[in-house]
Automatic annotation (TrEMBL):
SUPFAM superfamilies: CorA soluble domain-like, Magnesium transport protein CorA, transmembrane region. This is Magnesium transporter. Keywords: Coiled coil, Membrane, Transmembrane, Transmembrane helix. It comes from Deinobacterium chartae. It comes from the Bacteria. Residues 145-172 form a coiled coil.
């Protein structure tokens, strides 16, 4: 799907078709749409296909007046998936009279930009618009990391009384997401540092300040990922022991209960034998047997309580 936008008065406005100095957003483009972008604007086909590879790493290329920038953005998959959060590549292409973004699926960063989260947008200023996408990408990582922190806190509350592995598996999934986040953030940082060092495109002082802000936000996301990963690692080890202790407590309770029930069962079984037994002729014999049985069970229960087995 191809979407056409142009900034008017600092705000994005959707267009029915292509306009100069506009923005073309390609979401899961069909072969015909890719051919249109190649034919109409001369964009190299490699530049159009690279961002559609889910394993593509962040980098940039320049060829024949076109600039391709590939970066990794966060992508929520939902709590019921194998990985709650993953990363997907986003391609940004600078053509002569427009800027093109391309992704294999609706990208959360692009969707937020379309909803107007950026202020003072100018699609004619391709370099600044690209830096604004960089900034929003870093901020998106921070938002998802805060959500992961809340999920960790929720799992932690459930783990205190848990005897199952489900909560630990949830933490493991979040830890995998954090690994993907850190890998993507590090790669994005290297790509942006190279853009800054090699001056890939012309930047005014305001643009330079914006790129510095992006690098700071990206570094903050990396540090936050490291902190959350360290907390998860230590917490998983600690709560594995907690779950083991909870299971041991349940087993201890069942064992003591079995012992207390077994004593009356043993005594009544003996007095139920078909042989001569004490008090078998006494009308109060059954009461004596029950008194002995439950008296011994009560004594054992008192001893267990004193020994703090309960």
């Amino acid at each position: 799907m191809l979407e056409f936008y142009r900034s008017i008065g600092g705000k994005l406005t959707r267009q029915d078709g292509y306009v100069d100095n506009g923005w073309i957003n390609a979401v899961a483009p069909t072969p015909a749409e890719l051919q249109y972008l190649h034919t109409a604007f001369g964009i190299p086909q490699d530049y159009l296909s690279y961002p559609l590879d889910l394993d593509e790493r962040p980098r940039f290329e320049k060829e024949d007046g076109f600039t391709l920038i590939v970066m990794q953005t966060s992508y929520p998959l939902g709590e019921h998936s194998d990985i709650p959060y993953d990363t997907i590549p986003l391609g940004i292409i600078h053509a002569e009279h427009c800027i093109v973004t391309i992704c294999t699926m609706p990208n959360p960063v692009i969707e937020e930009i379309k909803r107007g989260t950026l202020r003072h947008v100018s699609t004619a200023k391709k370099n600044r618009f690209t830096l604004q996408i960089f900034l929003r990408t870093a901020q998106r990582y921070l938002i998802d990391l805060r959500r992961i922190d809340k999920q960790v806190d929720a799992v932690e509350d459930r783990l205190e009384n848990s005897t199952r592995n489900r909560e630990l598996l949830e933490l493991l999934k979040l830890e995998k997401s954090l690994v993907y986040f850190k890998t993507a953030l590090k790669a994005n940082e290297l790509m942006m540092e190279r853009i800054k060092r090699d001056r890939v495109f012309e930047m005014y002082p305001d643009d330079q300040d914006l790129l510095d802000d992006v690098l700071i936000e990206n570094l903050q996301a990396i540090e936050m990922t490291d902190i959350t990963t360290n907390i998860l690692t230590s917490m998983m080890g600690a709560f594995a022991s907690v779950i083991s202790n909870n299971v041991n407590a349940v087993v201890k309770l069942l064992t003591t209960t079995t012992i207390l029930i077994a004593i009356p069962t043993l005594i009544t079984s003996v007095f139920g034998m078909n042989v001569p037994l004490p008090w078998q002729e006494s009308p109060t014999g059954m009461l004596w047997v029950l008194a002995i049985a439950f008296g011994l069970s009560g004594t054992m229960a008192f001893l267990f309580w004193r020994w703090k087995w309960f």
